[in-house]
Amino acid sequence: MTPDITNPPILVHAGRCPYELTGTTDEEILAWTKKLRSTVSKMLTISALKYWVRHSFSISSEEYRYICNRIDVLVKEPKGYASFI
After folding, report:
1. Rounded to two decimals, what is the model's pTM?
2. Are 25 and 63 in contact (CB under 8 A)?
3. Distance separating alpha carbons of residues 42 and 47, to the nearest angstrom
4. Average pLDDT estimate for 69-77
5. DSSP character for 83?
6. CA end-to-end span of the chain, whole Å?
7. Are 18 and 39 in contact (CB under 8 A)?
8. Helix or strand or coil: residue 56?
9. Is the Cβ–Cβ distance between 37 and 44 less than 8 Å?
10. What DSSP character marks residue 57?
11. Count of CB atoms within 10 A of residue 7's CB?
């Protein structure tokens, strides 16, 4: 598959996350992810999402670690991401 260089994956997005993640349930994590990918970029990678969790929860908190682990389980990389690797 040839990568779409006009729409590259975003590994770490610059700036503050536009939406706060307000909870730790799977439903809240998935809704937050869907909202970000539909309004910011469909090419937000798992690493970008996990980076933005730190804007809602301290990186030294249990919630932060839990949410990042759940993102690894629940969220798939954007379609076409593997072709850039």
Report:
1. 0.84
2. no
3. 14
4. 96
5. G
6. 11
7. yes
8. coil
9. yes
10. S
11. 12
85, part of any domain: no
Classified as helix, coil or strand, 77 is coil
Rounded distance, CA 76 to CA 84, Å?
Answer: 15
- CA dist 85 and 79 (Å) reads 13
In the chain, the number of structural domains is 1
Q: Is residue 21 part of a domain?
A: no
DSSP string, 7-55: S--BSS-SS--SS-----SHHHHHHHHHHHHHHT-TTB-HHHHHHHHTT
Residue 57 lies in a domain: yes
Tens-digit pLDDT profile for residues 45-62: 999 999 999 999 999 999
Which structural domain range is residue 67 located in?
Answer: 26-78
Residue 6 lies in a domain: no
- 7 residue type, one letter: N
